[in-house]
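Morning run. Coffee first, then this:
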Amino acid sequence: MASEADGLASVVGIRADSIKDLFASLSQRQFPQAYLFDVASFPIKVADHVTAQLPSLTIGASSPAKERQIRRYGMLLEQIHLVAEFLEAADVLAIPAQISTYLDETIKRLLPDANLVLRADTEFNYSFEPLASAINEAIPPGVPAALPGPLGLFRLPYASKDDALLHVILAHEAGHLFDEYEKLIRSILGQASSVVDSARTQIASGVPLDLTLTGDVAQLNRAMTTLYSWLGELVSDLVGVHLLGPAFALASLEFNGFDDDPAQGSPTHPPTLIRLKLIEDELGYLGWMDEVLLKRGLWKPVPAFTPKAIGTHWPLDAKIVELVAANIIPFLSTCAAVVRAFFNDRSFKPEPYLLAEEHLLSCLGH
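And here it is:
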């Protein structure tokens, strides 16, 4: 009679075989850069290792330790499948060269040895998949492979895959990549510890929560997760400004123009108006606002607003978002300081010839 370990091993084996079948005909000639071939080869190497180890975990008497190891392999292969999705077909590597080359070079300047994999997807959104470092940490001893790192797995909307300007939004996703490897949010929380404590106290009293109760502590943790998620988005917006200046700001304005109410926040993202105000202030710090954008009529100052919670059937979620919105502003200066220190004079700033454009045009008779 088959044991539970046998059944688990059978399922894991099927998953390993499907990964190998997916990449059975790999050729290095399919990939424009060697590290992309390394990424694509990684799932096969892990699947081969798991397949070779499964027999030793099913021979002899079953044990909880063996079953746990089989389950670990199963969860690892599940994560490997997510990486494999980025490389199922060669056309996922087709990205606008105008932006991808610049982005790749700029990211490498700030994060040496970083590698990017971009996938055109059916969802009209941009995202960063924080899988690489987590997978490498989860790989058990003996697996003769690792994902090349730092590795950024970015998704972009296929419907706009040739729109180089809109893809400037990928600079925001680069912010999430920098945070994963450089711990920018951790630096913010360390430098603004008193602000964190104040926000925690005000959120707990505003719900209100009784922190002697386990359930209420869990709700406070949910609220703080929302706060940390907002910080991640705000930091990434700042990174986008420092990487690509006005191009990122205008692309953000275009992309977020679909919002029904730009003053609304959600459990994962701050209100668009908070984000645009932060972008506006950072453009001013870098010298783009007065001398370039406002002078050319390319930007209108962000109006005063009151942040609102997103519409939801769950009143507690709305209350948490409302309280986080009320406590997010004191973090903004620290967010900006941490990102500025990270870039350390490597930001994209206006060159003197841009600031002197009117003089140049007058010399040319325009």
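Residues 4-174 form one domain. Good start to the day.
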